[in-house]
Amino acid sequence: MALRRGGKGSLSDACEIFRCTMSAANVISHKYKCIFVEVPKTGSTSIRAILGKAWKPHLNLWQIKKQMETYWTRYGGRKNRILETYFKFGFVRNPWDRVVSLYERTEALQLRDKMTFDEFVDWIQYSSATCVHSSPHRYQLDWFVDPNGNVLADFIGKFEQLDEDWAFVAERLGVSEKLPHRRENPRARHYTKYYTSRTRDIIANKFRVDIEHFGYEFAG
C-alpha cells in the first residue's frame, strides 16, 4: 500500500558545505526539495535520470538522517531542517517479481550463471542481495524506517504502478518530465513462471514483512 500523502560556522557555510558534500549527485535534491530513497530494482535508474546520480547508492532514510545530522552539527546548522521539510519518497516492488529481477540482472553481482533459480531462492536472505553497494537490508521496508520501525518516508510508491505514482511525486515536486524507463528489459517469462510451489512459499516466508505491509500477492 502506498503511503500518500555568514562567517565561519554560520548557517550559510553549513548549507554550502552540505550542498557540495551531499547533493552533488542528488540523492538529496535542493532543486526539487526532496530526498529520493533508492531501493534497487524498483525503477531507480529512470528516476535518477531526472533527479541525478545517487551520492551513495542504496542508503536508507535512517542512514541519510545520520549523515545529515553529522554535517549540520559539525558546521553549526539546524540539523533536522532538511529532513523535516524535504519530500522523502521511494518505491518498492512485489518481492516474488523482484527476486526474479535480482537473479536475472546483468549489472552488479551476477549469479544466474553460477546457480539455478531454485538455488538462488534458497541462497537469498536480504533485499539488498546482489547489489555492489550492498547493505544488510532484510526487507524493502528497511529503507524507509528508523530502528524502531517508524516510517520516515512521506510517500512509498509501487514499481507495478510506477508511471502513476511518479506522476503523483512529480506533481508534488513540480517536475514536468515523465520517466524514461531506462534499462527496460522485458522478460520472456512472467515472474510467476520461475517458481515452484516450494520456492514460492520460501519467498513468501523470507519477505513476509514486505508482502504484508505493502499488500502484495503472488499473482499473474
Would you mind describing this structure in some detail?
The chain has 220 residues and is of the alpha/beta class. The chain has a single domain, classed as Rossmann fold, CATH 3.40.50. It has helices at residues 11-22, 44-51, 61-74, 81-85, 95-104, 117-123, 162-173, 197-206, 208-213, and strands spanning 28-29, 34-37, 87-92, 155-158. A four-stranded mixed beta sheet has the order 1-2-3-4. It is globular and about 50 Å long.
CATH class category: Alpha Beta
Work out the count of structural domains: 1
* CATH hierarchy: architecture: 3-Layer(aba) Sandwich
The average pLDDT value, as a whole number, equals: 79
Beta-strand residue percentage: 5-15%
Radius of gyration, in Å, reads: 18 Å
Going by helix content, strand content and strand pairing, the class is alpha/beta
Describe the sheet with the most strands.
4 strands, mixed
What gap, in angstroms, lies between the N and C termini?
18 Å
Low-confidence stretches: 1-26
CATH topology: Rossmann fold
Shape: globular
Q: What is the strand tally?
A: 4
How much helix is in the residues?
25-40%
Count of helical segments? 9
Please list the strands of the largest sheet in the order they lie side by side.
1-2-3-4
SSE run: HEEHHHEHHEHHH
